[in-house]
Amino acid sequence: MSQYENVVAVILGGGAGTRLFPLTKERAKPAVPLGGKYRLIDVPVSNCINSGITQIFVLTQFNSASLNRHIARTYRFSSFSTGFVEVLAAEQRIDSPEWFQGTADAVRQMIPHIRDWRINTVLILSGDHLYRMDYRRFLRRHFETDADVTVSVIPCRPDEAEGFGLLKADEDGRIVEFKEKPKGEALESMRVDTTKFGLSAEESERRPFLASMGIYVFNYERLIEFLNEDEKRYDFGKEIIPSAIEKYNVQAHLYRNYWEDIGTIRAFYEANLDLASPLPKFNFFDTEAPIYTRSRYLPPSKVQSCDIDTSMISEGCILNGVYARNSIFGLRSRVDSGTRVENSILMGSDYYESIEEIQKNMNLGIPPVGIGRNTLIRRAIVDKNTRIGSNVQLVNHNNVETADGENGCYYIREGIIIVPKNAIINDGTVI
Hints:
Layout: E1 7-12, E2 33-34, E3 38-39, H1 42-50, E4 55-60, H2 65-74, E5 84-89, H3 103-114, E6 121-126, E7 129-131, H4 135-144, E8 149-156, H5 158-161, E9 165-169, E10 175-180, H6 185-188, H7 201-206, E11 209-219, H8 220-229, H9 236-247, E12 250-254, E13 259-261, H10 265-275, E14 302-304, E15 307-309, E16 312-313, E17 318-320, E18 323-325, E19 328-329, E20 334-335, E21 340-342, E22 345-346, H11 355-363, E23 370-371, E24 376-378, E25 380-382, E26 387-388, E27 393-394, E28 402-404, E29 411-413, E30 416-419, E31 424-425
Parallel strand pairs: 1-4, 1-6, 4-5, 8-12, 14-17, 15-18, 16-19, 17-20, 18-21, 19-22, 21-24, 22-25, 23-26, 24-27, 25-30, 26-31
Antiparallel strand pairs: 2-3, 6-11, 7-13, 8-11, 9-10, 9-11, 28-29, 29-30
């Protein structure tokens, strides 16, 4: 039997996702749409499948209905396979009456559901990162060094280092020091010579820190030991890993390719728009390691009298007389003539309205699902099933950094306009 057959992947769904609000107002963070047709959870699940790891649990506790629905409709393995992707939502039990208190506590509470799988290794991942990794290399490093824990690390710049857990490792790659989000002198003390990890002298000078990616490989028995030692240790980065370094073999696995933590509106916005660039940092067009998602059997998109460049158009869109630059059109996006979309993400819709429904709503003064005529959308994120009327301007004229619109019809975060799911923006509105 292969070592990899005894591996279970646990994907952490994250907390309430407050930094991604209002995209997380009605959905769990891993269920947030990505790149027009995917969801964030598709990235780690696809990485697992492409790495031959098909026993996958997703842990979540906030707004998990849409995540449940997506996973149930998307990941169905053969009845002759042991593969599965299963959502484990936080639950209150007699021996564990609290909700998840942190990453380690989430895994601790879910152990009763995974301990009967006769596993020897647990791969712990995050549900809100954008990257492509072959986890077999990660696991190989873990097995070859006979590690108790292996932490995947990435070299990073000084300006981004204080947002991560930083570590130092000896010449054999064994981690000897770990500090969670240090600042000032504590941050400077974590500088390392990253040429020892294969970086060039120039690259090492630019990226002199080793940051934890928040993904780990644990020996199963050792993981149980860590979790049972002190039930007040709630977090892997802050408590479990620093404690493990003192007594056990904790190894570093260097990852040097593109990786983005999509934890904020700005990170989400920039990572999405980069996907539409001519040479994106993350490439969906990789036949060796595809990113999987739900098959929807939608018709091809219709594009008529449009001027569109440096953009992505998903299936089932109807674009009529649209000007677009550096933007993403999600599934079933419907945009009418004379509308300009610039540096924006349109997430599309979950359904099509019939002609009769459109007429009925218009008689009531309600715009159809989609975007009306002669509208200008610039530097915005428009969530699913929104109704944006004609002659609307979403441009943030006053360069506001943060704002909440009346009745929650729009929000501004980090200068980016966000129209939440199912919102209505009436004709002639200027934001």
